[in-house]
Write a structure and sequence with these properties.
Largest sheet: 6 strands, mixed
CATH topology: Rossmann fold
Subunit structure: Homodimer.
GO molecular function, one term: xanthine phosphoribosyltransferase activity
CATH class: Alpha Beta
Number of helices: 6
Radius of gyration: 16 Å
Bound molecules: guanosine-5'-monophosphate
Number of strands: 10
Subcellular location: Cytoplasm
Order of helices and strands: HEEHHEHEEEEHEHEE
Family: Belongs to the purine/pyrimidine phosphoribosyltransferase family. Xpt subfamily.
Mean pLDDT: 96
Protein name: Xanthine phosphoribosyltransferase
Helix content: 25-40%
Shape: globular
């Protein structure tokens, strides 16, 4: 998606040669117009999949997910990284190692929001080692629902997540695929 790649080139900051900071449009300040274009692209790529729900993880996957849910007129669920006090015990959980925080969390979704006949599109902001997406897919499967695909805003293709998810049988659609970071530059596939 050219618009997204241009935005990454213009505003992205590379940290430690492995992390991309895109706080000005995705991870802190959010550009709603760009998020809508991202959502339109996900809808186009997953056309015909009869999606009934979007599933993401807090916090940075939510914006693109809500826009996608708005176009498709389907609910958007986000997994919690910590169990809120108001959430009961009737939950699905999956253990996810956080790439950016360097710690494991049990991500949590109330069981009432996923049913066996759901066709779920998983969306996330970044794909690195595939932990977050695999944890979300695991929860969908605990609910006996179907993962129709995984939509990623920015894939770091030099890390193993995309290959791992494809090898596990999931369809992964990433809107910007980064081949490498070199000399402070982002190089796309
Ligand atoms: P994974 O679970 O695929 O290893 O990592 C994906 C998760 O880690 C995403 O939900 C995202 O929050 C975070 N993440 C991974 N790499 C980056 C990065 O380069 N920049 C930012 N901002 N977040 C990242």
């Amino acid at each position: 998606m050219d618009l997204l790649k241009q935005r990454i080139q213009a505003d992205g900051l590379i940290l430690n040669n492995s992390l991309l900071k895109v706080d000005s449009f995705l991870n802190q300040q959010i550009d709603p117009e760009l998020m809508m274009k991202i959502a339109e692209e996900f809808v186009s790529r997953f056309q015909g999949e009869k999606i009934t729900k979007i599933l993401t993880i807090e916090a940075s996957g939510i914006a693109a997910s809500v826009m996608t849910g708005l176009i498709l007129r389907v609910p958007v669920i986000f997994a919690r990284k910590r169990k809120p006090k108001v959430t009961g015990d009737d939950v699905y959980t999956a253990n996810v190692y956080s790439y950016t925080k360097g710690e494991s969390n049990n991500i949590i979704i109330s069981r009432q929001f996923l049913q066996a006949d759901d066709r779920v599109l998983i969306i996330d902001d970044f794909l690195a080692n595939g932990e977050a997406a695999a944890g979300l897919a695991n929860i969908v499967e605990q609910a006996k629902a179907k993962v129709v695909g995984i939509g990623i805003v920015i894939e770091k293709s030099f890390q193993p997540g995309a290959q791992k998810l494809a090898a596990a049988g999931y369809r992964v659609e990433s809107l910007a695929r980064i081949k490498s970071f070199a000399n402070g530059q982002v190089n796309f596939l």
